[in-house]
Every structure is written in C-alpha cells, then in structure tokens.
Amino acid sequence: MNVINGSYHEGEQYFILDTDQLKIGDIILEHGYAKHSDVICSQTGSRYSHAMIYVGGTIIEATLDGGVFSRVPNRSAVRDINDFKVLRLKETADVNMFLHITDYARSLLGSKYSVAQALSVKGGRSLQNIYQNSRKQFCSRLVAQSYAKGGVILVQDVNFCSPADIERSDKLFEVPDAVRLASAYEAQHALAVSPHSEHAKNTVKFIDFSLKILKKHGVKSVGTPDGEVLIMTLNDISQAVYENSSNHSLDEELTQAMHDSGYLDHIDIDRKVNSFRYNYDQFKLMLDTTSSQEVMFEVLSDEFYQVCLGFSARLQSYINGRENHRKFSLKYTEAELLIARTMLQCLYDRIVIIEKCTANKNFSGFKDINKACNDMLKLNHSYNLKML
Q: How far apart are CA 324 and CA 311, in angstroms?
C-alpha cells in the first residue's frame, strides 16, 4: 500500500482503483514510491513492486510493516494512472476456482512478512532452498500460492516469484479502465489515516501476544490439510485453541490477549465511522438530498453493492463461529462468535434500511434491489438471524 509523502497535497492529481470494474480474484499490481520499491523495479525490470488479490470488497496483501492483512481498495492512491495495473485470468474452467483462491488468501491473514525470502527471489536456487518450506509471506508469493490452491500455476515457481513474474504470466490479461482519476474527496479519503490500518497493527499485536502464550504452554504446531505446521496465522491460533480445548488456562489467556491487543475494536468500526448507514432517518435524508431519481439510484446501488460483497463471507463466518462455539464452548470461541455476529449484524441493519428505502419505488432498478434485499433477509431468517 502506498502512502504518498504521508498526506494529500491539494492541487495534485491522484488515481484510484475503479471498484466497479473489479472482479473477485483480480490481481492488482502497484508501483511503490519507497526506496526499496525502486530497487525491486530495477532488479525485476518492471514498473511494479507490489502485488495484491481482490477478494470482493477487500484486498488481501502482504506488506513489510503489517504482514498479511486485508483492507478496502479505496484506501490507496497513486500519482500516475499507470502506477496501478489490474490483471485477470484469461480462462476459468472451474466455477469454484476463485472460491479456493480467495479462501486460501484469507487463511493467510496474520502471516509474517519475510524480507529475506522476498530478496531471495533474485538470489539463486541455493539461497531459496534454505526457505523452501517456509510459511512466511511476501506479496507476490501470496498471490501465486493462492492461485495455485485454485489449480492455476501463474509462474514457474509459486514460492519464489516477483510482481514482474506475475505481470508477464501468459495466463493473465490487463483489465482496461480499472484505474481512474480520483476526485479531491476520494484522494483525501484514500490517503487519510484509516481505521483499517489501526486494525492491522492490533492484529499484529494479537498474534505476537498469542505466539508467546502458546509457546509458554508448549504449543508450537497444529494440524492442517497440508500436515502439521508451525503456528503462524490467525487460523492457526484458532486451530491451536480447538486442539487444546481442555486447557482452560490457554483459552482464558488467548481470549484476554484478544481484548488487550485491541483486536476486537474493529468489529463495528463502520457503524461508528458511517453512522448514517445504520439510521433510517439519516440515510433517507442523505437520499432526499440527491439531485434526481437517477442519482438516488446510483447511491443506493453503490450501498447495496458494498453490502453484497461481504454478505456471503460474513454469513458463513457466523455459521462457522456458531458451530465452533456449540462444539467447544470456550471463551475464545465466544469471542470469535461475537466478531462474526457483530459484523453480520452491521450488514443486516444496512439491508433492512436499504429495503425500506426501496419498498415503494416504481423504477425497475429500485424494485430489483428491494427484491434482492428481501431474499437476503429471508436467508438470514432461515438461520435464525433476525435477532442476532
């Protein structure tokens, strides 16, 4: 993620990703402005020093300062329209391909970033052999390994590759018009301090606390579909709790670490930052100030689109969390369920308001949104989610 001198400069042009053009699984390449970015570009012969995956509503990336984390795509801006490039798979044979790709990318959240392994991409096979079985990440490895889990080999070596290697993959094509000029407001928003950045820092703190606690209890590894692995990711930490569910001290200490690190502070952040979305009168007032029915429809469509992007993942997260808590009945699983329930509740409340605002509109587009809202609410009700 780029920060241009740390702030927005009035009068300068900035460019952002056009989220309307993005599809799940898209690969985003970025030209960074830090000194190490220039080195990467020079050594690999590419304009781009960073690679990310769009998973629908959010981007997952591995960065030097935060490890693997997710963020929203409108929180980054570049100086030149060519400093972003969006790549998309030419052929999709399996309808579940992108589900496997994005699920794996999400499973890496919390992974540590390895500078040494990123540098070893150009360091020769003897150096790479030292890190061959490492689970640490860097940006292009995350992208290539995630695609490999979906059955797509983008580059010659998915463990040691650069953004340039991904850019040159013959299995990808560039998505036209995926980058556009940002308005002054959009640029300011993109370059402002983000609550998502604070959450990324808190996540790193939680993982560091957790690894120390697990080490104290003699827990170093967990079982995965790929075999026994050293604990590194958020998923690994949860799995360690499940596998050691009889250790109540471990359960209590890890749950306390979740609270102490600030990891739980993000779960209703949108409700605090964008309170109008959760209050019918405020939301309706915002709509009533639009200049025409067409503009009102665009605003509603954008709000509904944002809800749709996260709905399935959050619903599944809630279902999984509820099942885990029923199975283990731990303080840790209770906290996990709180996260999933609160984040799903946010979407549920937004759907209720959007449905109400489109209920008596005769324009066909409004009717389509209203029907989709009601379908989503019925799905919630089928899981007894009406009163979360």
A: 20
